[in-house]
Write a structure and sequence with these properties.
Elements lengths: L1 H28 L6 H27 L1 H9 L1 H6 L1 H30 L3 H21 L3 H5 L2
Helix pairs in contact: 1-2, 1-6, 2-5, 5-6
This protein binds protoporphyrin IX containing FE (2 copies).
The site of one protoporphyrin IX containing FE has 28 residues, from helix 1, helix 2, helix 5 and helix 7.
């Protein structure tokens, strides 16, 4: 159940995140004023990713993979690339990515100019997106 919410919420996270990045790049290139709308888009992406973090933690401890880790041990998890991806790489890189989004959001608020604000969002959210995409269990997602 939590797994299902996590895998559907993933679409929302990815769509809003991509939208926020594209919006920041457009704002940067067109030298627009960083408006209330731009703050909202960045904030929605932050909130969506924080919610995914919480759902992810619940999914983690409720998953069969977690039981396997408890019974087989961490050594077996590290040796098996599927288990390692779900139990180690995906969560760890996900947490790092969401941390970058949070730092980017915090930093953009303190920047004085619109250009700097757009740039901060584009860079931090952009790196976060690449990290997230690199560690999604794609084959499992599309076979659900
Ligand atoms: C494991 C759970 C979570 C952790 C560890 C976490 C962590 C954080 C951290 C470190 C900040 C930055 C504070 C700052 O320096 O400005 C933050 C901000 C924020 N988080 Fe979370 N969060 C979590 C869950 C959530 C959830 C579930 C929501 C929404 C439903 C949420 C919404 C927000 C919002 C709106 C901000 C403030 C952005 C701002 O205006 O600065 N977070 N969170
Ligand atoms: C950064 C944003 C994240 C995105 C976009 C994301 C997306 C996904 C997707 C698409 C799947 C595959 C779902 C399926 O097989 O149907 C998945 C699985 C999973 N994710 Fe995430 N995730 C994120 C962060 C996290 C975090 C931070 C954690 C843990 C703290 C986590 C824990 C898990 C677990 C445990 C599974 C496997 C669930 C199972 O098969 O039982 N995810 N995630």
């Amino acid at each position: 159940m939590t797994k299902m919410i996590h895998s559907y919420w993933a679409y929302i996270v990815l769509i809003i995140l991509i939208f926020a990045i594209v919006n920041a790049i457009i704002g940067l290139n067109s030298k627009k004023e960083f408006a209330a709308k731009d703050l909202k888009i960045s904030l929605f992406a932050l909130i969506a990713s924080h919610i995914q973090l919480v759902i992810g933690f619940i999914a983690y401890y409720m998953s069969d993979f977690y039981l396997t880790m408890r019974s087989a041990g961490m050594g077996e998890v590290m040796k098996n690339s599927d288990l390692r991806k779900i139990l180690v790489e995906h969560p760890l890189v996900g947490i790092i990515a969401i941390t970058l989004i949070t730092i980017g959001f915090s930093k953009h608020k303190k920047k004085a100019t619109s250009t700097e604000k757009f740039k901060t969002i584009a860079v931090f959210y952009g790196i976060a997106l690449i990290l997230i995409l690199s560690r999604i269990p794609w084959s499992q997602w599309f076979s659900m």
